[in-house]
Amino acid sequence: MTFLEKTADPRKLRHWKGDVEADYIYTAGIGGEKMLRAIQKDRTLVTAICKHCDRTFFPPRIYCEHCLHRIRKWGKAPGKATVAALSVARLDEYGRPLAELQVWGLFRFEGVDGGLVHRLLAAPGKTAVGTAVRPVFKDARKRTGEINDLIGFVPLK
Amino acid sequence: MKSKSRAKPKGIAWAGEELSQKQIDRGSVLQTRYRPEAKYSWAAGQAMSRFLEELQNGKLIARKCQACQRTLFPPRMFCEQCYRPTDEWVYIKDTGMIETFSVSYLDKDAKRITDPIFVGVVSVDGASPQMGMMHYFGEVTKESIRIGLRVKAVWKPPQERTGSVLDIRYWKPLPEGRR
Fold first, then answer.
1. Which residues have C-beta within 8 Å of that of residue A130, sequence separation ≥ 6?
2. Pairing state of beta strands A81-91 and A97-108?
3. Which of A131, B7, B40, B86 makes the best surface tag, with the fewest CB within 10 Å?
């Protein structure tokens, strides 16, 4: 074997196998914790209100990204959201084909900066950008304090 | 003096909250735990793979470059001076000379030790000048070890060798006048 015969498979040579032990614990932060706890507790979507520049944010955060003031005031998002963008997923997060197509959307609330990417609970092709939707939550006893406590958004009748 | 680096300076209100290990352990904050599937397979490469195999056989092997006539050790498949692939495998001796050394009062885990270990570079007979390997020296004292000392590899018994540089236990001094 010469240098120019490239070996692309390390297993053909003397090799070592390993597993990078890059464990981590991710916490949601103050704003994220507030949002997830409120979804878990009473099915509300918490917003952050900047008293300095009068902007409202969802998901909630502790800094206003416009005026950089600390946020300590919290509100509630309206019950109705709008589909700002949507996409039909054919593969899961590992790239494997999905048994059923899924529709994902970016949802925004009127008068609120930001938005949330989540499932759009509608058949592909049946919903368009601009459609009014409302959030759908899991039953109280099944909620654990994660974003999937919110099942998704369903078009308003 | 007690460290004050974690105390909040007066008049400054940090945003956010520092989480304690207790809060994490008790689960009083929401958390996601995850280990990425980051597996790897690391290969020694062509030259080093053969080098390690030959160590298991109790031999030292090098690569010869016909252009510059150097014998490269540890072996490599490309000559960094001629910019061309090297040409052939050649076995070299398991004797050599101490090129440089350290008397270390720290072990390999950086723990302090009272009896020093001796580590350094051996230039191996048969390889081109100053080509060698880093290794341990044994059967020496801090008084007797010196640059230029002739040494010979002390091999592990064949059944204990694994294809590692540690298949050589250490390099010991050769009696004066012996090659």
1. A82, A83
2. antiparallel
3. B7
Average confidence (pLDDT) over A86-111: 95
Residue of chain B minimizing CA distance to A144 = B30
Angle at B165 between CA B161 and CA B169, to 5 degrees: 70
Q: Which chain B residue shows the shortest CA-CA distance from A22?
A: B35
Amino acid making up residue A66: H
Domain ranges of chain B: 45-173
**CB contact (8 A) between residue A24 and residue B86:** no
Q: Taking the CB of residue B49, how many other CB atoms lie within 10 A of it? A: 19
Q: Are strands A55-58 and A113-114 parallel, antiparallel or unpaired?
A: parallel
Which of A15, A20, A29 faces B43 most closely, judged by CB atoms?
A15
Window 5-64 of A, Cβ < 8 Å to B: 7, 10-30, 32-33, 36-37, 62-63
- All domains of chain A in start order, with CATH: 25-155 (2.40.50.140)
- Name, in order, each residue with C-beta under 8 angstroms of A36's C-beta and a sequence gap of 6 or more: A28, A145, A146, A147, A149, B30
Q: How far is CA A37 from CA A25, A61, A134, in A?
A: 18, 14, 19
- Interface pTM, i.e. ipTM: 0.72
The pLDDT profile of chain B, 179 residues, written as one tens digit per residue, is 444 445 555 655 566 678 888 988 998 899 999 988 899 888 888 899 999 999 999 999 999 999 999 999 999 999 999 999 999 999 999 999 999 999 999 998 888 999 999 999 999 999 999 899 999 999 999 999 999 999 999 999 999 999 999 999 999 999 876 55
Give the whole-angstrom CA distance, residue A72 versus residue A51: 8
| Predicted local distance difference test score (pLDDT) of residue B2 | 43
Residue A11 CA: distances (Å) to CA of A17, A18, A59, A69, B42: 9, 13, 47, 55, 8
The SS3 of residue A86 is: strand
Report the run of H or E that residue B79 belongs to, with start and end. strand B78-79
